[in-house]
């Protein structure tokens, strides 16, 4: 047994990722769920971990060992494993190593932070990534997008769906093999940031299988075995919803909507939460030609967002960036604009802002390009839109949780061009809001871009 702690061998990437699978008060502060792949079928493989702080370096053997279990999945080779780490310290980075066979540990140490109890945090939202190296070259910026998120070193990455596009990319054989490649490809951020997913139309219906995808993540039970779930980071409540059909609310049904209504009511009335942020793949507001607005989704979910005073919703799907102004009146399929402010919102602001952030590296199969807008004049709901870059959303939550800054980065398809900020705005719970920095917002010729940030 002693030798087993010492042996480290060079092996294939383990598809390591960590999540919060327990939805209970403080769970994200005191627990982590680790998932990894091993080619071994040996029972009893586990995880060893310790705080990364140098204060522990004086111990001869500072690691704790937790036994893992088989994770039910259809992976073609080897097995998926899962281990739940509990009784952890809040706001603490943990060094983690995973066991690959009897006496063999992967020769890499991962670093994952537990959530903070009293301080703010940073997170990213990315979707529509695809797998690098597609024969059609559509995943032209996927590696750069993933690398950028890895360099941010955020606490949490929200995955917004449409990850491998198996319908048009079958290089690696089975769907499971492509999922393997996905988890290997995101190691630049999955090796040190918690990841929490939702699923898109490709996972749901386009020659893929959402159950296969769900079996590879570990999330709270929620509704329909993790299709829809919620979790908390500090004083922010996140709600992940599976909106998988481009034109309906499927696979959501009345039971799911009732669950969501109850979850939203409990969350917005919980004094421990200051923000409630739903995220799902299909966009209820989209002027792009590839994937226009899902009006049915807008009506059904919009009514619930308005009922419970949700401030911000995150979406993807259509391969361009659009942010709406604060809206209500969406239950009939239309909308009412409640503010024309672009840069800062305060406690007096009414309505819901929808942020559509896409693509995350892969161009659309509709025209092999970004999704151009179908009207020169932007719809009246539009605050900002842009269709010439890949997009990633970076979000910073202040230490007192009273302010959130949303920053959208544009990643060019061309490696030689620099990434830059496309949009940024602040939302504060105070009653007085002013832009933090002077900025220049411009309207490009042809109105394919509106109010993007040219300089800060």
Number of domains: 2
What general form does the structure show? globular
CATH topology (level 3) name of the largest domain: Purple Acid Phosphatase, chain A, domain 2
Question: What would you say the CATH architecture of the largest domain is?
Answer: 4-Layer Sandwich
Per CATH, the superfamily of the largest domain is Metallo-dependent phosphatases
- Low-pLDDT windows of residues: 1-11
Instruction: Please identify the structural class as seen in this structure.
Output: alpha+beta
State the helical fraction.
Answer: 10-25%
Major sheet: arrangement of strands: 13-12-11-24-25-26-21
Radius of gyration: 22 Å
Roughly what fraction of the amino acids lie in strands? 25-35%
In short:
The chain is α+β, with helices and mostly antiparallel strands and 456 residues long. It contains eight helices and 28 strands.
Provide tags for this entry.
7-stranded mixed sheet, 15% helix, 2 domains, 456 residues, 6-stranded mixed sheet, Immunoglobulin-like, Purple Acid Phosphatase, chain A, domain 2, 28 strands, alpha+beta, single chain, disordered N terminus
Q: What do these coordinates show?
A:
With 456 residues, the protein is of the alpha+beta class. The chain has two domains: 3-113, Immunoglobulin-like, CATH 2.60.40; 121-455, 4-Layer Sandwich (Purple Acid Phosphatase, chain A, domain 2), CATH 3.60.21. The chain has helices at residues 27-30, 142-152, 175-185, 187-190, 201-205, 210-214, 254-268, 295-307; strands at residues 8-9, 17-19, 32-38, 46-51, 64-67, 69-71, 79-85, 93-101, 104-106, 110-113, 121-126, 156-159, 194-197, 229-233, 236-240, 275-279, 312-315, 321-324, 327-328, 336-337, 344-345, 353-356, 382-386, 390-397, 403-411, 420-428, 440-443, 450-455. The strands form seven sheets. Strands 13-12-11-24-25-26-21 form a seven-stranded mixed beta sheet. Strands 1, 4, 5, 8, 9 and 10 form a six-stranded mixed beta sheet that branches. A four-stranded antiparallel beta sheet has the order 2-3-7-6. A hairpin with a 2-residue loop joins strand 8 and strand 9. The longest helix has 15 residues, at 254-268. Residues 1-11 have low confidence and may be disordered.
């Amino acid at each position: 047994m002693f030798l087993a702690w010492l042996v480290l061998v060079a092996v294939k990437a383990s598809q390591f990722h960590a999540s919060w699978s327990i939805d209970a008060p403080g769970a994200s502060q005191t627990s982590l769920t680790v998932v990894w792949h091993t080619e071994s079928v040996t029972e009893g493989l586990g995880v060893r971990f310790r705080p990364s702080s140098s204060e522990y370096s004086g111990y001869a053997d500072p690691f704790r060992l937790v036994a893992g279990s088989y994770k039910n999945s259809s992976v073609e080779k080897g097995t998926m494993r899962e281990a739940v780490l509990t009784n952890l310290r809040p706001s603490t980075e943990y060094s983690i190593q995973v066991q690959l066979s009897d006496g063999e540990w992967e020769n890499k140490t991962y670093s994952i932070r537990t959530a903070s109890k009293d301080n703010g945090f940073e997170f990213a939202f990315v979707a529509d990534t695809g797998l690098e190296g597609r024969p059609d070259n559509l995943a032209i910026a996927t590696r750069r997008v993933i690398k950028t998120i890895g360099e941010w070193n955020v606490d949490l990455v929200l995955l917004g769906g449409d990850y491998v596009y198996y319908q048009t990319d079958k290089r690696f054989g089975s769907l499971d093999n492509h999922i393997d490649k996905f988890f290997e490809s995101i190691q630049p951020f999955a090796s040190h940031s918690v990841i929490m997913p939702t699923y898109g139309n490709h996972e749901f219906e386009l020659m893929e299988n959402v159950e296969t995808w769900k079996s590879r993540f570990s999330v709270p039970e929620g509704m329909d075995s993790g299709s829809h779930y919620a979790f908390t980071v500090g004083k922010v409540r996140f709600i992940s919803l599976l909106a998988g059909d481009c034109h309906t609310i499927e696979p959501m049904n009345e039971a799911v909507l009732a669950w969501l209504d109850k979850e939203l009511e409990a969350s917005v009335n919980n004094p421990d939460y200051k923000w409630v942020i739903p995220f799902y793949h299909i966009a209820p507001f989209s002027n792009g030609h590839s994937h226009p607005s899902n009006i049915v989704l807008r009506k059904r979910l919009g009514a619930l967002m308005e009922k419970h005073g949700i401030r911000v919703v995150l979406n993807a799907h259509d391969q361009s960036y659009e942010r709406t102004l604060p809206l209500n009146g969406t239950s009939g399929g239309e909308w009412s604009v409640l503010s024309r402010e672009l840069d800062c919102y305060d406690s007096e602001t009414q309505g819901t802002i929808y942020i559509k952030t896409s693509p995350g590296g892969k161009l659309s199969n509709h025209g092999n390009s970004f999704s151009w807008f179908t009207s020169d004049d932007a719809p009246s709901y539009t605050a900002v839109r842009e269709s010439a870059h890949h997009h990633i959303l970076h979000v910073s939550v202040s230490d007192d949780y009273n302010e959130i800054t949303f920053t959208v980065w544009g990643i060019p398809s061309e490696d030689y061009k620099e990434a830059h900020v496309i949009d940024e705005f602040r939302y504060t719970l105070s009653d007085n809001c002013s832009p933090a920095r002077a900025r220049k917002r411009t309207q490009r010729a042809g109105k394919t871009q509106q109010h993007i940030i040219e300089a800060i």
